[in-house]
Write a structure and sequence with these properties.
The chain has 303 residues and is an alpha/beta fold. The protein is built from ten helices and 14 strands. Adenosine-5'-diphosphate (ADP) binds next to helix 1.
C-alpha cells in the first residue's frame, strides 16, 4: 500500500532558486525510507512541503490516497513531523510541550498526559518532564521533538536530520527507538547526512541531487549495483612483499595493513584464499568506507 505518492513536485522559491524540478516518489506503508542528497539537493524543501510549511509550485501529493489539496487536515492527523531546528518554547517543560501539541490535534488533556508520560519514558527523558526544557542537553531536546511528534499516534513519522550533532552512543540509542517503532508498523521517512544511518536503518533509499531524483529503490538493489569495494586487511604478520593478486588493486598502508579493491565477481572467501596462497593470513577485515557512502559519492559525482 502506498503511504505517500509524490508526483511531478516542483518548487521555485521567490528568489528564483529552483529547489525541486518535478520529482516523483512512492513511499510504501511500513517503509523505513531515507531521502539522501548533498547540501542544497532539495531534501528539506521536500520535507517542508510534506509538513505543509512550504507551498509547492506544482505537482501532487497523496497520503494514503488522500490529496493534499483537498484533505490537508486529515493528512495532518496522520503525520508526525520532527523538523531540523528545535522549535519549542524553551521555557516550558517537556510535559507541557507534548500536551500542548496534543491540544492542536484535539486530544483531551487526560489522554494527552497519559500519552506524553509514556513517550517521555520510552524516550528516556522522563526525569526531565517537569523541568524547563532549556535545561536539557541537545540529544534530550531532539528526543523531546520526537516524543512531541508521536503524541497524535501518527501513521507516518517524518524526521529531518534526526541525529545531526548527536553523539554516536545517543545516535545508536535513537536508532533503536526508531527501529522498534518501525517494526510496530510506523512508516518512517528521514533525511540524513550519515550514510551509515541510512544503510543500517532503511529499506528504501532515494537520492536527490539538484532538485531531481537520481535513484529511488530498495536498499539491497542499490547496494548490489556497487561494483567495486575497498577492503582493509590487517594481517597477522608484517608484510615484506606486496602480494600479487592479479587484477585486484593492492596498496600497502602499514607494515601489517593492506587495502584491496575487489569487484563484485570476487568473494571475500576467494580474496582470503588468494592471500593465503601468498602466505598472508588476514587477522581483521573491514570496509574502507561504508558501501552506501561509496555508491553515493559515485552517483552524485557523476550526476
Ligand atoms: P537540502 O535540504 O537538500 O540541503 P534545501 O531543500 O534546503 O536542500 O534547498 C534546496 C535549494 O533551495 C538550495 O539551493 C537552497 O539554497 C534553496 N532554498 C532553500 N530554502 C530557500 C528559501 N526559503 N528561499 C530561497 N531559496 C531557498
Amino acid at each position: 500500500m502506498v503511504a505517500v505518492e509524490i508526483r511531478n513536485l516542483k518548487k521555485t522559491y521567490s528568489n528564483g532558486v529552483v529547489a525541486l524540478k518535478g520529482i516523483d516518489l512512492d513511499i510504501y506503508k511500513g517503509d523505513f525510507y531515507a531521502l539522501l542528497g548533498p547540501n542544497g539537493a532539495g531534501k528539506s524543501t521536500t520535507i517542508g512541503i510534506l509538513s505543509s510549511l512550504i507551498t509547492p509550485t506544482d505537482g501532487s501529493i497523496k497520503v494514503f490516497g488522500l490529496d493534499y489539496k483537498t484533505h490537508s487536515q486529515e493528512i495532518k492527523q496522520k503525520l508526525g513531523i520532527v523538523p531540523q531546528e528545535f522549535n519549542f518554547n524553551i521555557f516550558e517543560t517537556p510535559l507541557q510541550i507534548i500536551c500542548n501539541q496534543a491540544g492542536f490535534y484535539g486530544i483531551d488533556m487526560k489522554t494527552a498526559k497519559k500519552r506524553a508520560l509514556k513517550l517521555l519514558k520510552d524516550l528516556e527523558i522522563y526525569d526531565k518532564k517537569d523541568f524547563s526544557s532549556r535545561s536539557m542537553s541537545g540529544g534530550q531536546k531532539r528526543r523531546l521533538m520526537i516524543a512531541r511528534a508521536l503524541v497524535n499516534n501518527p501513521e507516518i513519522l517524518i524526521l529531518d536530520e534526526p541525529t545531526a550533532g548527536v553523539d554516536i552512543s545517543l545516535r545508536r540509542q535513537m536508532w533503536q527507538f526508531l527501529e522498534t517503532w518501525n517494526k510496530n508498523g510506523l512508516t518512517i521517512i528521514l533525511t540524513t547526512h550519515y550514510l551509515e544511518e541510512a544503510e543500517y536503518l532503511c529499506n528504501r533509499i532515494a537520492i536527490i541531487d539538484k532538485g531531481d531524483v537520481i535513484t529511488n529503490t530498495k536498499k539491497e538493489d542499490l547496494l548490489n549495483t556497487l561494483k567495486l569495494e575497498t577492503l582493509i586487511c590487517t594481517t597477522k604478520d608484517s608484510i615484506t612483499k606486496l602480494p600479487d593478486l592479479g587484477d585486484l588493486k593492492v596498496v600497502q598502508k602499514d607494515h601489517n595493513i593492506i587495502e584491496v579493491t575487489i569487484n563484485s565477481d570476487v568473494s571475500v572467501e576467494e580474496l582470503l584464499s588468494r592471500l593465503k596462497t601468498q602466505n598472508i593470513e588476514v587477522y581483521r577485515l573491514s570496509n574502507k568506507s561504508n558501501r552506501l557512502e561509496e555508491l553515493f559519492v559515485n552517483l552524485v559525482e557523476n550526476n
